[in-house]
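User: I'm preparing a small set of examples for a lab meeting where we compare how different chains pack in three dimensions. I only have the primary sequence for this one, and I'd like the structure in token form so I can line it up with the others. Please keep the answer compact; I'll paste it straight into my notes.
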Amino acid sequence: MEKSPSDKKDLAVHLNSLVRSLPDKPGIYQYYSADDKIIYVGKAKNLKKRVGSYFNKSHQGGKLRVLVRQIADIKFIVTDTEMDALLLENNLIKKYQPRYNIQLKDDKTFPWICIKNEPFPRVFPTRHLVKDGSTYYGPYASVRMMRTLLDIVKKLYPLRTCKLNLSPQNIAKKKYKVCLEYHLGNCLGPCIGEQTEADYLETIAHIHSIIKGNIADVINELKRRMHEAAEEMAFEKAQMLKEKLELLEKYKSKSTIVNPKINNVDVISMIDEEKLAYVNFLRVVNGAIVQAHTIKVKKKLDETSESILAFSLLDFRQRFESHAKEVITPMHPGIEIPEVSYTIPQRGDKKQLLDLSKRNAQYYQQEKRKQAALIDPDRHKKRILNTMMTDLRMPHPPKHIECFDNSNIQGDYPVAAMVQFIDAKPNKKAYRHFNIKTVEGPDDYASMEEVIYRRYKRLMDEEQPLPQLVIVDGGKGQLSAGVKSLKALDLSGKITIIGIAKKLEEIYYPNDPLPLYLDKTSETLKIIQHLRDEAHRFGITHHRKKREKGTIKSELTTIEGIGYGTAQKLLWKFKSVKKIKQADIEALTTVVGQSKARLVFDHFQQSKPA
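Assistant: Understood. Below is the structure token output for the 610-residue chain.
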């Protein structure tokens, strides 16, 4: 229900009094709507200054203005440090999922390795996390990686797989009998008291180390035990330990991807889109990746890359219980974590790790797009076209776009090119070249006016469909020339036409002196740039061919009976007209045949000075 002016005034007074009473301390603030729901949670170094900025500034973003209009109440929690505020903000956002906070879109189907909280703990894969004190490792984006780990564990250590309650009382009562796994040697029989809990827990400690990536510690322990067994003449036991060592060394060699000296490091990177971001996290121990995960982040208030990176980094470190002292990152996330340093590598092994993380984020992005395309093949196309329609203030989605570019060198061989995109993708069979016919000298404006008139006059005459959007490569001058042609064809107002200036990527509209600046990461700008670059490439290729043909014509095709094709064959073989002049009749004959060779040879012989 619409608030009355008096209600709005009372609300403004209420919010103003709340802001004025806020402390100059770090903490988190919560915005509530009129129906008492949390709509936004934020952190601040200084609560009074940060919250006050929402009500003292004229906000550029439309979403931010909508948020401020919906605030009916403010609550806050003071913390000791900014870091505490950041952690609390992270937890509250995950708990309440406020409407205007970013959302971490996690794939809940990824598996984990569980070490069960029970006597003689079992080790098994699961997709369900239960808060019962058990230890969970993951999630594993690669099921193969998880299975490899579990296979290593199974080959190294005999563990129980049964679900029996192996309490000391039940074992003492001899309540259970051994199963087939015991007879196969895959279990040492803790259910009947043949393996002590202390011995079993030592095995579990090794498994924790392996999963965490601390393989070196386990290898050293196995070596020590192997040497002890050999000294005691227990050669069968020593051989068994040796085989386990070889298995671990093989696994370690496959896991190492960079310098093994890189130890206990977190790596984070992201792919930033207009409305989404994909953030990848790698956990590296002794040069081996022991954990890897990627999430999708849905933006709500045009959050910066730094803020998304900071929020995601804290979430990952909490989730994976990481205490790494170094974080490799493409940029400083804008937060300081106690006893943690940031590395922004430019080269070397750490740069390789960062690149690997970014590739993982890209693969995840591509995978999500493919999944969306399978569910709704037209969804991606519709979203892009609707985004372009909104960004460019068009009445209809630009399903059919054409872009024009001129090419000439000091007025010589003036040509133009037109490229066409259908559903935001190149339609190369519809690309067209234009030789300028009515313009003499270097006049880009007149050339643009001519080709646009010719293009749409022909489409109208042939009753072909017209584009919804026309783009001209250039600023106000080229755009005015295009508008003039559309007016002459009575198409003004029926087709949206814009110009793009190269220097600052400004978008110009007819009769609007101020250009439009699109966000550099926006899909709309990227598609416009792709169109412009395609038109430029296509036009330059045609211009180069025409220039080469013109050069050949001036030198060789003046010879009667010699055409462009023959001249080109000669130039391909001899590389220059000078060498053609010096060639004998036999050399010319091998390239173009006897009759054509005679024409060329005689022509240049006659032109030699007596």
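A couple of notes for your slides: The CA atoms of residues 260 and 483 lie 63 Å apart. Residues 556-606 form a domain with the DNA polymerase; domain 1 fold (CATH 1.10.150.20).

User: Perfect, thanks.
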